[in-house]
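Hi R.,

Here are the chain sequences for the assembly we discussed:
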Amino acid sequence: GAVVSQHPSWVICKSGTSVKIECRSLDFQATTMFWYRQFPKQSLMLMATSNEGSKATYEQGVEKDKFLINHASLTLSTLTVTSAHPEDSSFYICSAPDRGFGKLFFGSGTQLSVL
Amino acid sequence: KQEVTQIPAALSVPEGENLVLNCSFTDSAIYNLQWFRQDPGKGLTSLLLIQSSQREQTSGRLNASLDKSSGRSTLYIAASQPGDSATYLCAVPGRLNFNKFYFGSGTKLNVKP
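And here is the predicted structure of the full complex:
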């Protein structure tokens, strides 16, 4: 199956710093990628849809200036959490669909802890 | 808006038992339904994908069924093993954007040796 690589796996940072998370599709091209956030014991909540070559689409309630998304190529999308605060601590997961519609392939996730 | 519900939220069974996980969704106009497994602190692994025209899919000890009209899907796990312990999530794509998935809150399964 398709492979989605996500880095880093975990990051600890001080409040006020910015953190960048990368999501790569290794063996397929992804014009669209999705970024989810998951709080402990809760399900995944879609934050935004990353579109190659154009602006990301954010879900209601997600601050686009806080969570910057860049999809510069067909295999790479990045999520930057700007001026992180403790309440941004969460598990962030990216995913990409296969061609057409159908299966979603997920990265391994990034655990962000903001001190 | 599509809402996906999973019951039970948690399940603990002895090894070898057969079990059923339930998933329900409010909008029956779905293209497909997907079951995932999530291990603690990890991403999601796709287990089974059922297209809207199908009634069930099987992979090894896993069998997923789909009843669109009633808005339900079940994941049947036969002869459970401790390695099956994980959180199981179901997801359906949106009606207008089939690449946008709606997830249930998951069933946390613990299979005791």
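Chain B has a mean pLDDT of 92. Chain B touches chain A through 22 residues (CB under 8 Å).

Let me know if anything looks off.

Best,
T.
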